[in-house]
Amino acid sequence: MNRKFESKLCWFGFLICAGFVFIFLQGCTEPDSSEIYYQTNVKSRDLQQIQTLELQKKETEETSPMEVNAPAPEKIELTLEECRAIALENNLDLKIQLINPAIAAERISQQEARFESAFNSNVSYYNTNSPPASYSDYISGSKGEGTNANLGVQVPLHTGGTVAFDLADNKRDSDAVGLVYNYTSNMSTSISQPLLRNAGNRVNTYAIRIAEYDYKIANARTKLEAIRVITDIDKYYWRLYAARKELEVRKQWYDHAAALLEQAERLYQAGQVGQVEVIRAQAGVSQRLEAIITSENNVRLRERDLKKALNKVGLEMSTPTTLELATDLDPVRYALQSDKLINIAINERMEMLELELQIAQDIINQGYLKNQALPLVTLDYTYNVRGAGFSRSDSYDLLLDTMHKTHNLSLNLSVPLGNGAAKSQIQQAFLQRRQRLITKENREELIEYEVLNVIDQIEANWQRILAGRQSSILYGRLSEAESRQFELGYVTSTDVLEAQNNLADAQSAEILALVDYQISLVDLAYATGTVFGSAKIRWEPFNQDDM
Q: Which of 83, 381, 408, 499 could form a disulfide with 479 if both were Cys (CB 3.0 to 4.6 A apart)?
């Protein structure tokens, strides 16, 4: 006995040592590729030391921008509608938002899967050889072996209950004395149904309905993002339009100053004016050159804004491609009815729709929490049929005869004392709904405020257009008159330059008023939850195959 015990003890110790070695080797194994990929090596100097930016000084000075004869960059002509289509297809912010409805749709499927049936099974084998507790146990037997097999299906119901079907098959071999069946079988059907808490279709589909509203909210936010993208594209387009028109004005302004310089030099050579007039004209040319440089830089900035919003392959922000705008401004005065526009805004704004959906969720949540405050009353019923025999066929024959059947009916009750947590949740849900209703009223006032402000801005911009056109006409006449007076020697070149400056400023103001009027129309469309123009926009749900 001692040798056998020592042998078993040695084997037991060997298994323990082997287990420790296995665990140690597992800890020393290399991490998989995903762990290596996500591993980040951050040095302390990256976090605690600020690096300096070193720039290389240019050895030669560039020539004047007006003297550079650089090759013309590639040009691409785009209409406003084409820019909208490109942005809707490629804008990254919109692509991010388009995934949210797909995620919300999967959450609906996840909640619906709670009512899927489940198949379960269990197979086990046992072999026992226990020491007898008394002499009589030698007679009854202490050795045995057998198998147990169980198959079943559980079906969750929309009413909150569960129906289960189970079939058990057991085989047992024993050295027991007497008549012992080797095979037993058992078939049972049970149903468990709550009667108060968690009872009913509406309570048990609560999560599905909440997920469906979340899906609608995700679509509303996606629509809002699409409107925002189109609104931004329109603004970038017209701002680039304004920058290009401003550059044209500044170049004309430079040409006029150059012509004045030639005129001053000619008059100086003829002895009609002093040299100071030539110097004044040269200063005017230099001033206009600086304005051209500023306007060209503004064009590049506005062009980069539009390229960034388009996000088109081959038309990245760093590309030198010039965007030619094919859509021209054609300002039209509209009869704006404030009451009608406010009603459109309240009905079309996605923020209002999102609040309506959230209020609907609050109502559902209140009903669910009220149900959760009820006592838990569960009705359980089980129907069971048993069979036994010396062979499996005998056991199942007796099972199918349903001679040995039992019925079990029980009622379980659980009532929380005080139920303070459930009452608190109901009160929180009520307050949250009340808060959202107040938020809705506040949002309606803000929308009305935004619409009225934009309407006033549109009217003011239209008046600015009329004033700008009148100023351009008058200053144009004044500039021509001053040029003739300078030719006759009645005024100085300073008077001519001032008249030209006023004309350029009036033309710039007119261009800015035209673009501001168009942008204010875009703002009005955004304030009403729509887009300005006649194009209808529709998008398709996100598809994983597109990734």
A: 499
